[in-house]
């Protein structure tokens, strides 16, 4: 498979890194109209932001699900950007890029180019291709492209067909772990050289909720932490185990019942270096908030320490769903997707600005109040 790195776009729109303290000093990035970013991560070596560039639908066909499947690479210091496109994926329905994650071990960006059908049909249509690309940020080329078809075929169990992929995490050896979102809780493993294996496959579930969503790696405990909405809990997996199995994470929920196990989704999950990897930032679409969970025992247990509602603009408060957070230097930004711009799920309107909001001060306040540390890089 060939990939293309290009610069310059027509039909421009605006995306901002927005500081709530100084709206007059927004950093403005010119990008393609209908950007609709959902996921992103920061390359701290080359100081570039990789953004899932997910043109949900074109203006000419506003009711279609025409996923663009490219990745925008932004250099905020030079105010320049490139676009990564992939032969056989970019512009090919039903592929869409949903997952973006930086791996420090291999200095690579992991990209999930997966079928959009399971997501737009809530798991009723599980067809379409699914691939994971490791993009080497030093050579600006694909180190591997792994097809998940073999793993997905093993998720056809009895009357269930598992699959649907959008996120991943990487351990200290450069292995990538890819969870299944629908019907069968499962995790694929891809080595840094691109070898695929079925690392964990659980029992099918009849639950209408997602199986696995946001996932992180916690190096100090050598564990994966993963959101299991169908169980209403976080789970951990020991990546050093020869027989990996999920362990329930003990969770202390708010006593007032304002946030319960039935609410847990975490479309995105991040354990930022700023909080010494001991705090989870959970992107809760349904609550339109980032909820914070902290641990003092390597994620054997977590306590809820608060939430941050992003109401920085009326537009965000009305339409924005927080889907991811990202740490850039000493700041943590919230990224939003606008799923209902035309009052229909996953159909783009004519939106032309996509602000990323700096919520560092709000996060820091909750973390410090709960007795955890904040560390500048």
TrEMBL record:
**Could you name the domain of life of the organism this protein comes from?**
Eukaryota
Alphabetical list of InterPro entries matching this protein: Mala_s_1-like
A Pfam cross-reference name: Mala_s_1-like
SUPFAM superfamilies in the record: Calcium-dependent phosphotriesterase (SSF63829)
Protein name stated in the entry: Tri14-like protein
